[in-house]
């Protein structure tokens, strides 16, 4: 799972610190404007700093946004259009019964320390990702893998317990590292960029890998600079210290860039769902009527308007419109305070006080203010509990010690996690679990879509969580910067095509 708020990997921070080298200069476009496109460094601003550089764990979108596809690669990748593409696997074959996948590796691929990629590296990486101690976000989705075998140096065979429609998609989240390397080795990537340094609280730098096995990056390197607030971030863009802002968090920030020929504003599609998640495993949230009541108490249109002023989209389930099993459920459990009160009374719940764990920032505080007001109108008291990233990851994601939480989820196809009763929100519906299992082993894509549409509609009807809205994907760049993806339909922010004219 990758979260928009940098839900912490606190235990990894000590390990990561050992990687941080001396801070480098972070000059922006002003220092590189005379460089040719191939020689230009691109400086990108973000509020989504990694909480650690440990790969193949759930909980933080910062690591996947900066490093996946850029520094570390999988057998497959999900491209900027959301399509699965071959990466370290040049191609693959599937047996007639769908139970054996044979992956043929890129024979020229090598790690950044010069070591050749072999099938043993792939076997070890996948085995670790699906092993009993793994914290990989897609671990449960990959449990269909029964055996991983190195056929020869350039061929890997995966034997499955059943067919899996989503296997190549899920494998995109598992980055391949050297056989047996449990340390955080800076030269362990195979991607178009090498890792240079991460100075926590400031920047992360990667440089072009001139020995890359595939198509080389179109710029000499990228520095991601990290900011705590969007005002400072946008000031840096205005003064020439940045070339591009990955994501604007507020429409108010766009006024200074509109009608200014020095900048380009793009509005694309995202997969970032803002939700108020209940701990469905405990009372009163184990009662579908209570969840529906709390959801119907929320004026989602007002929240979206307050946060995004016309941008974005109200949603009623976990599925964005870019997924083929999307259904518009925005009117399901629509704003109805009287109906909410009736459902609470029917469930025998009164004078309800609910705590909400959240990682504070301007957007979350704005949501919380309106949420508190809406719930008070139906007799529910919301008690805010602001916490930091690392605490959220331990308390909510790992220990499940919470009532409710506000969080943004960025992953594509994360509706599937409602089929896992052990996931942090604890939704447990055997029918949904069966439909998801059937969808993955469906004989055709149409059958998969039909089953996952049913999942989408069911979790929406039962208010498994309270989905608030889908973020727009708004980026601002200097006019001479091109080649960046406008949409964010995958976890990574692929930077190899970005150039300065």
TrEMBL record:
<dbReference type="InterPro" id="IPR039424">
    <property type="entry name" value="SBP_5"/>
</dbReference>
<dbReference type="InterPro" id="IPR000914">
    <property type="entry name" value="SBP_5_dom"/>
</dbReference>
<dbReference type="InterPro" id="IPR030678">
    <property type="entry name" value="Peptide/Ni-bd"/>
</dbReference>
<dbReference type="GO" id="GO:0015833">
    <property type="term" value="P:peptide transport"/>
</dbReference>
<dbReference type="Pfam" id="PF00496">
    <property type="entry name" value="SBP_bac_5"/>
</dbReference>
<protein>
    <submittedName>
        <fullName>ABC transporter substrate-binding protein</fullName>
    </submittedName>
</protein>
<dbReference type="GO" id="GO:1904680">
    <property type="term" value="F:peptide transmembrane transporter activity"/>
</dbReference>
<feature type="signal peptide">
    <location>
        <begin position="1"/>
        <end position="22"/>
    </location>
</feature>
<keyword id="KW-0732">Signal</keyword>
<feature type="domain" description="Solute-binding protein family 5">
    <location>
        <begin position="83"/>
        <end position="410"/>
    </location>
</feature>
<dbReference type="GO" id="GO:0042597">
    <property type="term" value="C:periplasmic space"/>
</dbReference>
<dbReference type="GO" id="GO:0043190">
    <property type="term" value="C:ATP-binding cassette (ABC) transporter complex"/>
</dbReference>
């Amino acid at each position: 799972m990758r979260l928009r708020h940098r839900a912490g990997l606190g235990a990894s921070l000590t390990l990561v610190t050992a990687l941080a080298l001396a801070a480098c200069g972070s000059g922006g476009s002003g220092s590189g404007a005379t460089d040719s496109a191939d020689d230009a460094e691109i400086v990108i601003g973000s509020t989504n700093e990694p909480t650690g550089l440990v790969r193949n764990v759930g909980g933080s979108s910062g690591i996947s946004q900066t490093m996946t596809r850029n520094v570390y690669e999988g057998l497959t990748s999900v491209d900027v259009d959301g399509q699965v593409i071959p990466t370290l696997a040049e191609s693959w074959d599937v047996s007639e019964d769908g139970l054996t996948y044979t992956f043929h590796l890129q024979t020229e691929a090598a790690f950044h320390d010069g070591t050749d990629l072999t099938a043993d590296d792939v076997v070890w990486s996948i085995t670790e990702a699906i092993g009993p101690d793994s914290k990989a976000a897609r671990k449960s989705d990959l449990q269909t893998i029964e055996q991983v075998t190195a056929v020869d140096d350039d061929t890997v065979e995966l034997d499955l317990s059943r067919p899996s429609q989503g296997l190549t998609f899920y494998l995109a989240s598992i980055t391949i590292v050297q056989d047996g390397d449990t340390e955080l080795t800076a030269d362990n990537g195979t991607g178009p960029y090498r890792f240079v340094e991460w100075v926590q609280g400031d920047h992360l730098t990667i440089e072009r890998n001139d020995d890359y096995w595939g198509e080389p990056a179109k710029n000499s390197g990228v520095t991601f600079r990290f900011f705590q607030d969007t005002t400072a971030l946008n000031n840096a863009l205005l003064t020439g210290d940045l070339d591009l802002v990955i994501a604007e968090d507020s429409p108010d920030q766009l006024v200074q860039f509109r009608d200014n020929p020095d900048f380009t504003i793009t509005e694309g599609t995202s997969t970032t769902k803002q939700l108020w998640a209940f701990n469905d495993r405990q009372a009163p949230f184990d009662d579908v009527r209570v969840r529906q009541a709390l959801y119907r108490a929320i004026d989602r249109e007002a929240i979206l308007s307050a946060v995004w002023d016309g941008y974005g989209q109200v949603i009623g389930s976990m599925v964005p419109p870019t997924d083929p099993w999307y259904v518009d459920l925005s009117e399901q459990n629509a704003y109805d305070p009287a109906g909410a009160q009736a459902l609470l009374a029917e469930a025998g719940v009164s004078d309800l006080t609910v705590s909400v764990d959240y990682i504070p920032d301007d957007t979350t505080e704005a949501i919380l203010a309106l949420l508190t007001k809406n719930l008070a109108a139906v007799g529910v008291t919301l008690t805010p509990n602001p916490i930091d990233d690392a605490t959220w990851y331990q308390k909510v994601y790992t220990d499940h010690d919470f009532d409710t939480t506000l969080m943004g989820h960025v992953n594509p196809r994360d509706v599937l996690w409602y089929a896992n009763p052990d996931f942090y929100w604890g939704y447990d519906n055997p029918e949904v679990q069966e439909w998801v299992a059937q969808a993955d082993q469906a004989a055709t894509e149409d059958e998969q879509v039909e089953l996952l549409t049913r999942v989408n509609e069911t979790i929406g009807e039962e208010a498994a969580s309270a989905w608030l809205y889908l973020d727009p994907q708004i980026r601002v760049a200097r006019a001479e910067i091109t080649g960046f993806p406008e949409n964010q339909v995958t976890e990574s922010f692929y930077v190899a095509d970005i150039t300065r004219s």
